């Protein structure tokens, strides 16, 4: 489970991340990643906002049970990867219909590849 400070909840937060971030799709996921402009050296590291994530799983993925299962998997996978992103980053993960049939490990590989592509690594 993600902490409340690490979750995107409002529509404008999602819109800002999707429109202003880099997009990369790999396998069954598409990620929109917004990196902070530059680190503020005057601000202590503890005051810097943590990386945040949000998830979009449409009805095209499946029924409510399948959508929630995919969302839980992506949430858990993202929690592990948020620590590697710079503080202040925003990550939106959109599940494609193929995500319903992917295993947990394969979703993790797709997510890793998509994040690496969005970061330009």
From TrEMBL:
Keywords tagged on the record: Endonuclease, Hydrolase, Nuclease, RNA-binding, tRNA processing
Subunit structure: Consists of a catalytic RNA component (M1 or rnpB) and a protein subunit.
Keyword Cell division: no
EC number of the protein: 3.1.26.5
The keyword Metal-binding appears for this protein: no
PROSITE patterns: RIBONUCLEASE_P (PS00648)
Protein name per the record: Ribonuclease P protein component
Family indicated by similarity: Belongs to the RnpA family.
Gene Ontology CC: ribonuclease P complex
GO biological process: tRNA 5'-leader removal
Organism: Asanoa ferruginea
InterPro entries: Ribosomal_Su5_D2-typ_SF, Ribsml_uS5_D2-typ_fold_subgr, RNase_P, RNase_P_CS
Gene (name only): rnpA
SUPFAM superfamilies: Ribosomal protein S5 domain 2-like (SSF54211)
Classification via Pfam families: Ribonuclease_P
Gene3D superfamilies, per the entry: 3.30.230.10
């Amino acid at each position: 489970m993600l902490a409340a400070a690490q979750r995107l909840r409002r529509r404008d937060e999602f819109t800002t991340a999707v429109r202003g971030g880099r997009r990369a799709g790999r396998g069954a996921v598409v990620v929109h990643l917004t990196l902070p402009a530059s680190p503020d050296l005057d601000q202590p590291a503890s005051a810097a906002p943590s990386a945040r994530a949000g998830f979009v799983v449409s009805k095209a993925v499946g029924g409510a049970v399948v959508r929630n299962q995919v969302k839980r998997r992506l949430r858990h996978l993202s929690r592990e990867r948020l620590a590697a992103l710079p503080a202040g980053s925003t990550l939106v993960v959109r599940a494609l219909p193929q995500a319903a049939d992917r295993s947990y490990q394969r979703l993790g590989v797709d997510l890793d590849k998509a994040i690496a592509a969005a970061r330009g690594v």
